[in-house]
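Run: sequence + zinc ion -> complex structure.
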Amino acid sequence: MKNQKHIRAILAFLLIASIFLACNRLTGTPTVTALPPTTKPEPTSRPVESAEPIDPLAGSSGLGDSLFPEFGNGGYDIQHYTLDITVNDVSTSDLTAITTIAAKATQDLSSFNLDFIGFEISGITINEQPADFERDGQELTITPSMLLQENESFTVTVQYSGSPDNFISQSLPFQTGWVTFDGGSFVLSEPDGAATFYPVNDHPLDKASFTFRVTVPEPFEVAANGVLTETIDNGATNTFLFEARDPMASYLATINIDKFDIETMESESGIPIRNYYATELPATVRKPFARQGEMLTYFGGLFGPYPFEVYGSLVLNTEFGAALENQTLSIYGIDMIDPNDVAGTEGVVAHEMSHQWFGDSVSVADWKYIWLNEGFATYASGLWIEHTDGRAALDEWIRSIYETVAANSEHFTPPGDPTANQLFNGGVYFRGALTLHALRLEVGDEAFFEILRTYHEQYKGSNATTDDFIAVAEEVSGKDLQELFDNWLYSEKIPPIPE
Ligand code: TRP
Ligand code: ZN
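>> structure
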């Protein structure tokens, strides 16, 4: 019986994997890009002058990601975003907003870019002075009235309104970013949806802290990353203020609007937990979240102290076919929760929670290193099986995912070097997890968990590459592990089962 529930947990993931595999069929689907504002030109904007010579002091329009060269921008570093959003109509997500960005120039800048999709921009300021801007697809180019000097701190405000565009990711066959559904809205942005609701340096390399000030009509409520510090009753509307003080990758920012039941608990290790359940959901959806405190304590022991000030889960009253590890607040489509399979669903809960260490705290330095997120989180659900049911149950779980991958190898890419439209291929998840298990068997349990803790300790709040992880593994274990990683991460042929 036990075995069956673990197989079910795997099947849940296979379902996700098969959705991701469907991306293949979507290859060639154009990404939805923003149209320039259609109304009258604003006094502060300037028509695009074509064939302008390339300005050496212009910040670059990408951060050099190997899979997504246009993601993010160069020439500056953002410290803090304040997202001030008033949702006028929840059913359409019609909103008016001001995003305020505190940044620092990393070079002399005559202009710089943000990533931003859709909306009508009514004005941009830099250091309170109106600035010129132009738009081309998701690139918003801003030209300050005076050159920004290297190391200069500056403040940008972007004022905009409209409803977020529907956006299909380059990597996934479903809508990401700000999604409006019947009853509310949610935000799931990995990897490229963030620009659908705020102007952003959209690459995990530029982490920042966030303030969310979101105003919604009664009786709606807001759940965002971090700590709810204030709720202001304005009469017909309420304003919710959230502070996410720890550095966060742009794709992990989330704002969810619905009516929620809030459940609070605390881990033995003292981490406060707040869960948001859409009010229409039955109480049984809470069951797989009951052991989150124990999970936080368990993973804290294995990976090092939980890296943020709060944790929790949010269950949407809509199907989404996936869950996402938004920082401090993981989000689940209702179809990810099976109250009749608590152990299987706990596998998903463990997966998203472990991403707080691997993915959120330590983030990829380039999207091609995605196995450092997904392989680790997949293995963490195996670790939870080991915790609850013992080592033999983990071994059996390993055997079933190995057999699945080996029997369908053409669908599971080697995890170390995926393409943009196979970013979330099942190979990144399953073969990524098997890579860690192979490492564990090679170096032994003590060294293995020391490697995980050292890696997190060394790169927390920051970014890492596959080679960074390998270097830690070799240093801690004192072994040459290049061949093991080469075979598991890059070779077309899957190595023999680790046992
Ligand atoms: N990182 C998610 C996971 O834990 C998968 C995922 C990627 C996702 N992009 C997404 C989920 C967008 C929801 C929306 O496996
Ligand atoms: Zn994941």
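>> summary
Residues 2-21 form the longest helix (20 residues). The longest strand covers residues 76-89.
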